[in-house]
Amino acid sequence: MSELARLAEERGVMLHTAASAQQQAQWLEQRITKALQEALLARGRATLALSGGRSPIPLLQALNLIELAWEQVGITLVDERWVPPEHAESNAGLLWRHMPQVMSRVHWQPLYHGAGALQDAERSSAALQAWLPLDVVVLGMGSDGHTASLFPGMEGLAAALSRHAEVPCLSCQAPDGRQRLTLTGAALHSARLQLLAIRGEDKASTLTAALAGGRPEWPVSAFLRPPLQIVYSADAS
Fold it and tell me: The Glucosamine/galactosamine-6-phosphate isomerase domain covers which part of the protein (predicted)?
């Protein structure tokens, strides 16, 4: 058993290892689809918060092929750069490019609205409050231990990570100084299914250190407990 697997088991967190990025995407798609189907059967609606960046692209492409009652599903983002959808770095743009069949049918709740970062966070919080608890959240993680746009050392981090955070969405600054919008612990911890997808040995090292408990200042450490499920692939391509 690897150190990563041993530490995850000690925490009571399920860890799945995928041989490739494509297998990781398939594993995620199956669990997301099952959770959404169960939510639709139980409550007639379902909610999903997705991460952006390059790593989720295979998952988005897999979800785009799934037949589901998408008209009854609400989709939002875990975080967003404060840029319009047509910007190359927009996470909303990423979703529209890689799962257009899904996005054309769902109830889409963007984080960016163009009024200003603070105003957009307030508007998104008001809309997302009615969605809580979420059904599925898919998190990623940076090599610095950040998740969503919750970064080590950011102002108000402890309050933002708390499941009792005052708002589900807030505006913040990334280490590069650029404005972002992020879900807080109030939304992220609420999810019935919480997934963390990581790829590459550098991120495995970061996650191992976080699971060992020695880096409580890393935002990802706040989520390393049940009901989180982790899927890891050494394939960082």
Answer: 20-223
3-state SS class at 186: helix
Count up the domains in the chain and report the number. 1
If residue 183 lies in a helix (H) or strand (E), which one and from where to where?
A: strand 179-183
**Strand pairing category for 79-81 and 179-183:** antiparallel
Q: Is residue 106 part of a domain?
A: yes
The predicted pLDDT at position 205 comes to: 95
Q: Is residue 179 part of a domain?
A: yes
pLDDT for 97 beyond 70: yes
Across 14-151, the runs of DSSP E, i.e. the strands, are: 14-18, 46-50, 73-77, 79-81, 107-109, 136-139
How many Å apart are CA 11 and CA 107, to the nearest integer?
35
- For the record, the structure tokens of 117 come out as 């970062």
Does residue 75 sit in helix, strand or coil? strand
Does residue 52 lie in a domain region? yes
Q: Could you give the CA distance from residue 132 to residue 130 in angstroms, rounded to a whole number?
A: 6
Q: Please state the φ and ψ torsions of residue 37, each to the nearest 5 degrees.
A: -60, -40
Identity (one letter) of the amino acid at 128?
L
Placement of tokens 């669990």 in the chain: 31
CATH number, domain with residue 176: 3.40.50.1360
For the stretch 197-211, pLDDT in tens is: 999 999 999 999 999
Q: How far apart are CA 113 and CA 131, in angstroms?
A: 18
Question: What is the domain extent for residue 45?
Answer: 3-192+202-222
- Compute the half-sphere exposure of residue 142: CA atoms within 13 Å on the CB side of its CA: 15
How large is the C-alpha radius of gyration of the chain? 17
